[in-house]
Amino acid sequence: MSIKAKVTLVGAGPGDPDLISLKGIKAIEKADVILYDALVNDELLDYAQAECIKIYVGKRAEQISTSQDEINRLLVDYALNYGHVVRLKGGDPFVFGRGGEEIDYVQQYGIETTVVPGISSAIGLTGLQQLPLTYRGISESFWVITGSKSDGSLSTDLYLAAESKATVVVLMGYGKLAEIVEIYRQRNLHNLPIALIQNGSLPNEKVVLGTIDNILDESKEKRVGVPAIIVIGEVVAKHRSFQHIKEKALAL
Prior knowledge:
Elements (H helix, E strand, L loop, with lengths): L5 E6 L10 H8 L3 E4 L16 E4 L2 E2 L2 E2 L3 H15 L1 E6 L9 H9 L4 E5 L4 H8 L13 E5 L10 H5 L5 E5 L5 H9 L7 E6 L7 E6 L3 H7 L6 E5 L10 H9 L1
Parallel strand pairs: 1-6, 1-7, 2-3, 2-6, 8-9
Antiparallel strand pairs: 4-5, 9-12, 10-11, 10-12
Helix pairs in contact: 2-3
């Protein structure tokens, strides 16, 4: 029987295995091979067939155990030799997940490609915290920005975003928190609310709230680490736990 090569990019969501789509689960169930990332919950692999080949390609912000070029080659090699390959990626494949690059590479070989969208951490983790990215009269748009470009530098879009009233969500940027804070300080936005969400949607989730002026101290005190997203904007004050931040500021 001839092998039908196919690659399906599946977004696994922000961490909680229940946040993957039904279509994503069905793709996993039909996979001959699964290439999965570090931020993918291992419980999702339980949906795979017993004979399915599972390959960890460990991509994590600032810690990459498998290069993107190697992942691209693996996708093609396994598809041509085994059939249906599922590329299981955290969040959504097309939101800073290099899904577009992988699709472009695979399609060069005439291999069928499909994408199953996932819940991006930018939208999913804020939603779980009942933290609206948009709110009538407060924020009419939001930016989702990478905290670090491929060369390691801070995205220049952050300077533009800080000039707007939009909510700003920074992914893969916790290591540059001090630089991001300084951008807002230079614009005299010292009291602008900001939130850090580490390991969002998981049992060890940590949420730290503050303002531009105190978030560095708060993050150090609460021992925030990666992976964590940064949310900046007036809508952060809508978080149910933000009232104590206001009371603490008034008491100073």
